């Protein structure tokens, strides 16, 4: 009898000091849940850190871009590519058109004829013949405009140009293309503002000076060599498309998801202005993270009611305002679009 009681006590002690199979499974399940939750939390934290790092990297790209632009324009001289048609242009003609002055017009690009009027037309060209100021290999009715006829002396602008108009009090409709906010107050301006043309001092013969008997030698570096026949420009270069519907994100804060944007970078183009066949060059200055609304370049990109040209050039003072909107990525599923801005003063002012 005594032996049986002792065995019973031993059995009870073994049960009290261990776990049943059910208890063990419950404990393992709890541990697994904790480990999975910890792993998920660490993964989310790692993703957030990665997203913030990419955001910081993109911001550094823009700051580096501003530095590159400042270096290129140091001692530079701005150009305002505006002119008129030397002869009338019929609707639909694609062979070529002749302008009065080609100074500052890139070797390829887009022009605006009769801006602000019912006859406004955008025309792309891929050939510049400076000896006769002819733009050739045309695509008429570009960027949503219609191909139409234009009389002699019609105003012609390079698409990139943007400058304040003279009448800032009560300008008539059609005399300006937009109004932008600025440190100086609201500014009415003409143009799209996606580029800036310039020249800088050059020393083609490597004499050690940029000055000759006629003064400063102006030009550009084309194909690695300085030339007084050279000209250069900074210009928005689209290479991709972003739609609000695909991103499910109202990029320009206008209350809908209907807009489409070109995504691109800034290129530094240089060419021989006497004969582009003698040399051209192109260099990308930043990765394609910059936004412009398709067929509406320079428009309002943050919903504040003011337009946002990339480059706003004031020839009289040599002031160049640069405003960029960059798609930096997303953080925790939210798209990040950030505005960057700087102002440069070109000490040598404007060429025209």
Largest beta-sheet details? 8 strands, antiparallel
Determine the structural class based on helices, strands and strand pairing: alpha+beta
| Beta content | 35-45%
Instruction: Name the overall outline.
Output: globular
Q: In whole angstroms, how far apart are the ends?
A: 120 Å
Number of helices: 3
Portion in helices? 10-25%
Indicate the mean pLDDT. 86
Number of strands: 22
N-to-C SSE series? Answer: HHEEEEEEEEEEEEEEEEHEEEEEE
* Uncertain residue segments: 5-16
Radius of gyration: 31 Å
Question: How would you sum up this structure, described in words?
Answer:
- 32% of the residues are buried.
- With 352 residues, this protein is α+β, with helices and mostly antiparallel strands.
- β17 (260-272) and β18 form a beta hairpin.
- The model is unreliable at 5-16 (pLDDT under 50).
- 21% of the residues lie in helices and 36% in strands.
- The N and C termini lie far apart (120 Å).
- It has helices at 2-17, 21-73, 244-247; strands at 77-79, 82-84, 96-98, 109-113, 121-129, 134-139, 155-158, 162-164, 178-180, 187-191, 195-201, 211-212, 215-216, 218-222, 225-227, 230-243, 260-272, 280-284, 290-293, 311-314, 319-331, 334-345.
- The chain has a domain at 49-77 and 169-345.
- It contains 3 helices and 22 strands.
């Amino acid at each position: 009898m005594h032996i049986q009681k002792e065995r019973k006590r031993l059995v009870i002690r073994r049960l009290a000091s261990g776990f049943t199979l059910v208890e063990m499974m419950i404990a393992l399940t709890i541990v697994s849940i904790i480990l999975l939750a910890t792993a998920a939390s660490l993964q989310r934290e790692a993703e957030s850190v990665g997203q913030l790092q990419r955001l910081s990297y993109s911001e550094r790209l823009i700051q580096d871009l501003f530095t590159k632009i400042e270096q290129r324009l140091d001692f530079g001289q701005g150009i305002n590519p505006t002119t008129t048609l030397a002869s009338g242009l019929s609707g639909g003609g694609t062979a070529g058109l002749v302008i009065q002055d080609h100074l500052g017009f890139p070797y390829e690009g887009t022009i605006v004829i009769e801006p602000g009027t019912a006859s406004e037309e955008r025309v792309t060209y891929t050939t510049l013949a400076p000896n006769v100021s002819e733009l050739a290999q045309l695509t008429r009715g570009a960027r949503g405009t219609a191909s139409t006829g234009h009389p002699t002396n019609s105003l012609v602008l390079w698409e990139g140009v943007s400058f304040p108009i003279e009448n800032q009090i009560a300008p008539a409709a059609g005399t300006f293309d937009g109004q932008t906010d600025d440190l100086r107050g609201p500014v009415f301006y003409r143009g799209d503002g996606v580029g800036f043309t310039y020249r800088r001092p050059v020393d083609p013969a490597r004499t050690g000076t940029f000055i000759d008997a006629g003064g400063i030698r102006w030009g550009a570096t084309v194909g690695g060599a300085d030339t007084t026949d050279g000209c250069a420009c900074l210009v928005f270069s689209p290479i991709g498309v972003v739609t609000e519907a695909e991103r499910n994100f109202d990029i320009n804060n206008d209350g809908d998801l209907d807009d489409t944007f070109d995504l691109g970078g800034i290129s530094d183009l240089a060419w021989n202005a006497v004969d582009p066949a003698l040399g051209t060059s192109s260099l990308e200055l930043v990765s394609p993270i910059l936004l412009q609304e398709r067929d509406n370049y320079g428009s309002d990109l943050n919903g504040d009611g003011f337009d946002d040209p990339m480059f706003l050039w004031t020839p009289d003072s040599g002031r160049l305002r640069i405003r960029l909107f960059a798609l930096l990525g997303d953080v925790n599923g939210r798209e990040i679009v950030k505005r960057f801005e700087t102002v440069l003063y070109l000490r040598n002012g404007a060429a025209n």
